[in-house]
Amino acid sequence: MTKVSAPTKKVKKDVLASTQEVIHQALSNLGYKEDVYELLKEPMRMLTVRIPIKLDNGDVKVFTGYRSQHNDAVGPTKGGVRFHPEVSENEVKALSIWMSLKCGIVDVPYGGGKGGIICDPRTMSFLELERLSRGYVRAISQLVGPTKDIPAPDVFTNSQIMAWMMDEYSRIREFDSPGFITGKPLVLGGSHGRETATAMGVTICIEEAAKKKQLDLDGTKVIIQGFGNAGGFLAKILHERGANIVGISDAYGALYDEAGLDIEYLLEKRDSFGTVTNLFKQTITNKELLECECDILVPAAISNQITEENASKIKARIVVEAANGPTTLEATEILSKRGILLVPDVLASSGGVTVSYFEWVQNNLGYYWSEEEVAGKLHDKMVKAFNNVIETADRHHVDTRLAAYMVGVRKMAEASRFRGWV
Where is the active site (predicted)? Predict the structure, then answer.
């Protein structure tokens, strides 16, 4: 391996560079040669599309969209489509790599994919969103499909948008294709449990982590940074299971009460984008919330929230990442040295792709499972994945993030090797 001299000053890595760094280390720890890293460090395909959409006022606006397919050695690629003003090519690439890792960790026969459109859906009408959704499918239709690449919901996309996308794909292909996309409404071949799958997966990881730290979830103090789809469902589920939710936040601020918040009231009052703190005068910042007293901290909002600047101030015993990349590599090292159990994002948030896999299987079979069946299968997958990551960390004497990457990358590396790609 060629040695690269260290930079003379610290340069902030972007999300793709940080992901590549951990993958490199994971493959090295597993004994793979450099050519395997060269194959896996970038997506095999990256498509950029331009989507002209007629707005309600009659103007035409051209949107930029992406679809990244990381590696299909194991099977078709799989991953969400996000609508967000800050979508970027590097972010989509990194997220597709994370999807590959998630699929490896929960042992489903997919590689990672991810898509995104640079837009702000909060400023768009219902009809404009439909035109954009259909336009995106038309632009990527040659590269996706039930046996090629299977989209799903992500940030600011939902079951309605998946329904439009499925309908457009079915029109293009001239046959009904429910297995083309997951996260659909139940009446169009969706799966029970898909809407809450990410939050349920995080909850299972929280329960397993609490057992490891000998914490009783009943009465345990939990802070959830983020109150959108994942954070809101998570707060509801944990509250129902007896946890004491002492802090929540949204894009505008945070609420903290060491005696516990009224979660039912907050869920009732939040808007469709997870905003609720604007109804209160006494709020704190997201940064302050992270440093408040609690037993379990769940970053469920955006990336780079726990950094080397504040990692030493985190008071939780367990950090469970429900968001993508909320903890930097430097902060991971600090938390690990302090004895804080970190459940990394590629493990904690893999419930979504797990139930998406269940939905795809049900579409292929034409036979649909009950909510109890889906919940039981998800629990088995997540517990097995959690234990595998913890055992790998203990066996190789590495932190849990590196251990999760080692578990996640192994299947993909082996599939590539057996195919003769490396």
Answer: 114
